[in-house]
Amino acid sequence: MFASLPLTALRAFESASRLLSFKAAAEELSVTPTAVSHQIRSLETWLGVQLFERLPRQVRLTEGGERLFHSLHGAFLEVAQSVDTLRPHRSGTNLTLSTTAAFAALWLVPRLGRFYARHPNISLRLDTHCEVIDLHQDASVDLVVRYSLDDYPNLYGLCLFDESFGVYGSPGQVALAARQTPTLISVHWHNSKLYAHGWQAWCAQSGEAWLEGQPTVREYDEEHYALQAAIAGQGLVLASNILVSESVANGLLVAYRGEIQVDGAGYSALCVPGRERHPPVRAFFAWLREEATVSGFAFSQVT
After folding, report:
1. Topology classification of domain 90-303
2. Which residues cross the membrane (predicted)?
3. What does R_g of the chain's alpha carbons equal in angstroms?
4. Which of 108, 154, 122 is nearest to 288 (CA)?
5. Closest alpha carbon to 253 in 243, 266, 263, 265
6. CB burial class (10 A; 0-12, 13-18, 19+) of residue 1?
7. Which residues of the chain does CATH 3.40.190.290 include?
8. d(CA 222, CA 50)
9. Are 128 and 99 in contact (CB under 8 A)?
10. What is the dihedral of CA 176, 179, 259, 170, to 10 degrees?
11. What is the pTM of this model?
């Protein structure tokens, strides 16, 4: 059944598709760019379909190339993982997770001690750059935790948390807010679709007139800076119930009129289909499920 498959050409195609570069694929495979180009040309001839559009300074997958890449990448990944399980176990296993700096600092890192206690052989590397990673193209990242309103039909994962926003502050600031308009601490959102006009929505629900006149508003680029300002007693912050949970549990922040909540988006843990069977990824997904349950947040499978 598999004897006629051009495996060398398929390997060159998978590398070039993932990296979107014949030159980078050649470096990865330790061959010349001409050899990669020749392998892909022979594969296109064998299939009778064009797989790449050759542009002046780049290549782009055709529709047929996209279909082949997604199935081939998943198949190669599963074979690599199966082979890896047959090798003698090494002393440690690496796991790379991409997420936002705020989620890492405010929710994930404070809980990671429990993960390491259970899996001392797994070394977790956190990638907190702002760029959204295409998991089908970047095989160096095992899984991501994303904050979004979107669905991910081409990925395997869990919807961990449905988020809402409330107002929080230090105990002193919360007591003071009952008598006078507080300083308002907010976050400048890079994606306005995720959370637009948050303070207006919260004040409209609560009936508070804090936005009338010219209130003092302090704005930060990242949620963890805004929470630190609130912990330091600089005002009240409009914050995610997910990201504020550790500070509330430690008594650093308390809710002001906690029954008033504004809907947010959600956090999902995602990976390329098939990668969830890789032992470190499977262990991390299982741990996330438990932490979501312990934290009192619901989760569901998204694929």
Report:
1. D-Maltodextrin-Binding Protein; domain 2 (3.40.190)
2. none
3. 24
4. 108
5. 243
6. exposed
7. 90-303
8. 45
9. yes
10. 0
11. 0.66
Q: How many CA atoms, within 13 angstroms, populate the side-chain half-sphere of residue 212?
A: 6
- C-alpha closest to that of 269 among 66, 115, 121, 81: 115
Could you report the per-residue pLDDT of 29-87, keeping only the tens digit for each?
Answer: 889 989 999 999 999 999 999 999 988 888 899 999 998 988 888 788 777 767 766 65
Ordered DSSP codes for the chain: --TT--HHHHHHHHHHHHHT-HHHHHHHHTS-HHHHHHHHHHHHHHHTS--EEE-SS-EEE-HHHHHHHHHHHHHHHHHHHHHHHHSPPPS-EEEEEE--HHHIIIIIHHHHHHHHHH-TTEEEEEE--SSPP-TTT-TT--EEEEEES---TTSEEEEEEEEEEEEEE-HHHHHHHTTSPPPEEEE--SSTTTS-SHHHHHHHHH---TTSS---EEEESSHHHHHHHHHTTS-EEEEETTTTHHHHHTTS-EEESTT--EEEEEEEEEE-TTGGGSHHHHHHHHHHHHHHHHTT---EE--
Architecture field, domain 7-86: Orthogonal Bundle (1.10)
CA dihedral 55, 56, 59, 62 (to 10 degrees): 0
CB under 8 Å to 189, separation ≥6 — which residues?
195, 196
Neighbours of 34 (CB within 10 A): 10
Instruction: Please give the structure tokens belonging to residue 294.
Output: 């312990």
Token pair of 29 as six digits:
């495979």
Structure confidence at residue 302 (pLDDT): 47
Of 67, 42, 65, 39, nearest to 52 (Cα)?
A: 65
Model pLDDT, residue 300: 46
Q: Please name the residue that has the structure tokens 């990669």.
A: 36
